[in-house]
What we know:
Distance between the termini: 15 Å
Oligomer: single chain
Structural class: mainly alpha
Mean pLDDT: 95
Amino acid sequence: MELEKTIRNKLAEVLKIENPEEISLEKDLKEYGMDSLNAIELVVALEMEFGIEFAEDDLLVDNLCTVQKLILVVRKYLV
């Protein structure tokens, strides 16, 4: 679950959450204060971390709204 941990850590940095473990896998990230600017910052951080580039289709709000969905999107690029 290294991928999950890395995504939670990046999310915690972007949203200024002290404990990444508190971020639920299924909870909508808006509930943690995620907005469009945070989403861009998170996408850039994940792209740099994993050396990937998100396709336009993967940047839809529905694909980035929970940690679980983020894991699925990032995993596609790491195969």
